């Protein structure tokens, strides 16, 4: 739906920024003993996927609901899939364990429904991180607030997440995306923390990248139909500057990078995390990589080539990665690639 290539102005808007050498303000990211990432919402749910030592999947008989057409008047609906993303991140260091929510899916009730069916208590969440302001990552915030009641919950986001955005499509169809409201979120009990710069959470064990440096030549951001309101008019929003990722350093293994859509580019994000932390080794890459559709397909080969060089132990792309990129990654990294699905729990340990 966003497949057009732009002219010189669009190319200039998406030009990479220079970011060479070590970070000026390096991040002392403390290593952890284990991180578990549970995909609460993804574009796909496959009840037939198997589990192994790296990932556990939900089993049939998960949650029964009334259905009069069956003997016994009940059925097992499995989990919801929707065009959105939400992940529960549980970090353990020694005997200390902390749980964060990274994005909340598209619909008001999709994430909380899946959590309930998986017997996950979202009242145990210590904080929320938004990868960016697109509505398919923030739709479940109200549902989360309803489950928690009036208790305050910190939420970290880039200030650009409030940006008003739209898609101006070739057939003259305009789709203005739902825009986050700070006043509404604070009214629901969220303590909003705005940061353009990197943030350290959970006793310095979790890094939120903040705004990502764009250093590759091929990750050009969004096509011209993706626009932002400047206050006086609509302009091409190529960079989606509010895009950020969550990073954990697993002891003796390396970095685990979790993206929402990866609008900054998967390789830009990984290199940014490496530069900030001084940790060269990429252990795992999970989340949306936004390589779907004709505009992004030329980005697939160099992305795959860079990931082959990085040699992660796990690659679990989901959400907006797209089937062509999934096939390419599965073929190039057969020992590392895992299919993503709502209800998958990935365990990465020292």
From TrEMBL:
Classification via InterPro entries: DHPS-like_MBL-fold, Metallo-B-lactamas, Metallo-beta-lactamase_dom, RibonucZ/Hydroxyglut_hydro
Metallo-beta-lactamase domain boundaries: 93-177
Protein known as: MBL fold metallo-hydrolase
Organism per entry: Pseudonocardia alaniniphila
